[in-house]
Amino acid sequence: MNTPRFDTIECTRIRLQLNEYISGELPPEISTGVTKHLEICEPCSRELERRIQVRNSLRRAFKALPVPGSLAAKVRGQLSDPKPSFFWLHNVNRLAVALPGLAILVVAFLTTGL
Ligand SMILES: [Zn+2]
User: Fold this and answer.
1) Which residues surround ligand 1, an ion (CB under 5 A)?
2) What 3 state SS string does 72-101 have?
3) How far is the CA of 10 from the centre of ligand 1 (A)?
4) pTM, whole model, 2 decimals?
5) What is the DSSP letter of 67?
6) Contact (CB, 8 A) for 47 and 18
């Protein structure tokens, strides 16, 4: 590993992307940039290793925990029945109730100059 040029702003930017980098969620061109930085920056490379160790420890710990049957069933149920993409339409009734009140306030404001 080459001697890193410790650039605080660049390192800060890279560290903000490390979790997505580990998860493989970064676009390829950004991921390549992170990889290149990690090749020359030992502090960020150590931070990457630390985060991978924490992630692995958490995975082992959570795998050891029993999941209550009711929780597992509830999660499965919600995953198989996602909300419709226009879930805000469920609030149309509330909007229909609020609009007349809002209209009265607007008319009062316009007529009285409040
Ligand atoms: Zn760095």
Assistant:
1) 11, 41, 44
2) HHHHHHHHHCCCCCCHHHHHHHHHHHHHHH
3) 6
4) 0.55
5) P
6) yes
**Scanning the structure block, which residue is given the tokens 């919600």?**
78
Domains of the chain: which residue ranges?
1-65, 77-114
104 Cα–ligand 1 center, Å: 59
Q: How far apart are the first and last CA of the chain?
A: 70
- Report CA(43)–ligand 1 centroid distance (Å): 6
Residue type, 35: T
Residue whose structure tokens are 């970064």: 26
**Placement of tokens 């209209």 in the chain:** 103
User: Which tens digits make up the pLDDT trace of 53-110?
Assistant: 999 999 999 888 888 888 888 888 888 876 666 655 566 666 666 667 667 666 666 7
Contacts of residue 42, defined as CB under 8 A and 6 or more positions apart, other chains included, come to 1, 4
